């Protein structure tokens, strides 16, 4: 019986890693789109003006999401941009906002890339 426990634990571990990498454990359809506006107020009451050169969508950040995960959910299929380009475009659209310091419940403009 003891010889059977190690292979079973190994299989459970491998399956858990496979599931997490392919399917994930974060919710997928809970992003709430905010009203489409040209300006959005952040928590410091500084208006964030939309840059007309970068297509974007206003999204309210839900728990567990990052800039990259939200941009990936906005696109069907692969995103046609590098990670650095996504971060730079996000910070351009949302002046005075660092991509790594977004707040839950706040609305931000996220870039949309055409294929």
UniProtKB/TrEMBL annotation:
Top-rank taxon: Bacteria
Record-given protein name: LysM domain-containing protein
């Amino acid at each position: 019986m003891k010889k059977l426990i190690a292979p079973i634990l190994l299989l459970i571990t491998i399956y858990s890693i496979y599931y997490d990498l392919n399917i994930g454990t974060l919710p997928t359809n809970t992003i709430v789109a905010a009203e489409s506006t040209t300006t959005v107020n952040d928590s410091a009451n500084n208006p964030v003006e939309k840059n007309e050169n970068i297509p974007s969508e206003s999204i309210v950040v839900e728990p567990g999401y990052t800039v990259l995960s939200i941009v990936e959910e906005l696109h069907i299929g692969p995103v046609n941009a590098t990670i650095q380009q996504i971060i730079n475009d996000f910070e351009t659209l949302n002046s005075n906002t660092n991509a790594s310091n977004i707040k839950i419940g706040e609305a931000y403009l996220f870039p949309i890339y055409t294929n």
